[in-house]
């Protein structure tokens, strides 16, 4: 665990992205609301948000940060779900891992709720899109 | 949460896969053991294994299963880390989510430990490779 | 913690009930889907279900039980939300506490999501309705 | 999760109340110290306090707050236990949910420890009594 | 995590021991019930029991076991607290770690509640006393 | 839970120590890297660090503190492992318990990974070595 004792508290923000690639059967079922396990988008969104709060306990070297906000947005595209998560905190270190974890747990939840329909799903493209705050300043991914 | 009350307990096994694509700088640092945050492969392996035990609490509709074994293997390839996780349990439902979660948390940990070196990393190709046990029988992914 | 080592494993089921009494403003907002914090019924249902899985860690003398199923149903009545939770497990001891905890956490979530609209809400009538399995046999509350 | 990033940190306090209605048998057993499962009031008090620390993980849209203090007081009345919980924090958002959760988990624990004696218990009247700090200022429930 | 998939489920029991060495001031305060933080023995007993349920999450390579019983006994001796914990489960692997963890968390709690009175306390002699069940059979420590 | 609402936030640091006494067989196996369960020192170090983050949830009356840093150092001596843990936070109360918990969980992990080789191990001498910050000022143990 990096010692952040000497670092300043300032506003941190991070946006992460990921996707769940899958067949039409599952995507259609979600759109029609016919997935037996429930409202996939709503459940995954919530799981992602709750997952972000667990980041510091799941990722060994992460500090536990006091999140000001986590937002998870899920879109249904033609051949995949896209997941975007934003995390914010006033902290001594960045919230990238919180945003990444939110995306991951949302992705896992989408997978779990649809695996009876489509076992071939692939979770991927999980990456950091943006980051603000802290000494290293702003970061904007170029190949978004 | 699907009611598994009427299902039989039998041996379940699942293997999941995923990868962290990254540049040479981080891979070389890991091979040389020069990453400041510690032994990346060992920490990620452990985080994946511990993460698998949290599956039922992270993924809302998952049952909490009594895992008999979780194994996480991480390889350093030319342009990525490959992560394979196997989960086993005697249970009424499958352990795919446990294997998937192990891969995910291992991937997040690799990302976390190297993000000071390489911010462009992408976690992806997270998918189920194999599954055994239960009424649906054996599954072997074809496009491994 | 009562020693259940000598007890038989058998099918257990419990149904608990509770309600959140509140004004029309919040109930109407929920029906119209205009609550800023999201889909109250869906979020509370999920929180209840996930909360049930934490029972053994929250209630000191409870055993941790392998839940086969948790179902939470929330209805919007004229002056209150009614919450019903069913828990099932094959276990050496009953699942009353899991059903009760599900109701409680669902109730807390309903409260949390509406407290900006209505601070006067009261969570109450949390009680066991039914119980099956185990040496003490079936229980059906009379004053449901 | 409401974005509290722009809000000021200030002292927050909340008091919640609840009760467990039950028959004389259990109340007498508690007073005599003859409940097999242990010291009901002490265990429930502790469970409530520890439960308050879990609030942000149990209630999906709650922020995790750095509690300065949680106090749980339990009284044995003629036909019920009364539970009062006070929570305090220096935070950007209120601690109502922490106080409410403390009451709830204390109530569940009282129920759990006595359910072998009295299955008819009802947990109820869980509500916010007081709240201080934050933009909305002081709140004092009138129908205490 | 050792693969216990092929092992038989049978009754397991383990007893662990530990102590907190301290000065008279704290021991006397506990006996008189004058410790500000509360009933030390009762709180520590409970913390130990609850801690045992967390073993599989705290100790990386431990399996999560379905505990049938945890008992923690604390005695006040002339110059120390002695802590004994017994854990039981029907499982494929032993419950030594659960008993050891119970002792440890009880010890930490005793330390925490008295550290304002006595900073010199030492927690020690934490060891396994007995173990039953499983292929390796019975174990009884000789130098108890 | 002591009310720390009125206390100042300042830099806190604590160092705790502990050891696992054991036979040569286990120590040698660790040095040779032949312990089946993995890299004992690395796993224990990580478990201690992660355990420190759980302190506020394990020790009932502890506040949950925002740790700036946890460092666990493990040395292999002739007849024992020595464990030193340092914790740091900017907080209203000290981090002794975090340092102590880190030592304890590291000790439990060392025990767990070697118990198939040596059942006689004893975890002991767990104590506070140093403490800085807060009204009570600096503390340095004399009989280190």
UniProtKB/TrEMBL annotation, chains A, B, C, D, E, F:
BP GO annotations: Mo-molybdopterin cofactor biosynthetic process
Pathway where it operates: Cofactor biosynthesis; molybdopterin biosynthesis
Signal sequence annotation: none
One Pfam assignment: MoaC
Leading EC class: lyase
Catalyses which reaction(s): (8S)-3',8-cyclo-7,8-dihydroguanosine 5'-triphosphate = cyclic pyranopterin phosphate + diphosphate
EC number(s) per entry: 4.6.1.17
The protein's name: cyclic pyranopterin monophosphate synthase
Gene that specifies this protein: moaC
Keyword Nuclease: no
Keywords: Lyase, Molybdenum cofactor biosynthesis
Alphabetized Gene3D superfamilies for the sequence: Molybdopterin cofactor biosynthesis C (MoaC) domain
GO MF annotation: an example: cyclic pyranopterin monophosphate synthase activity
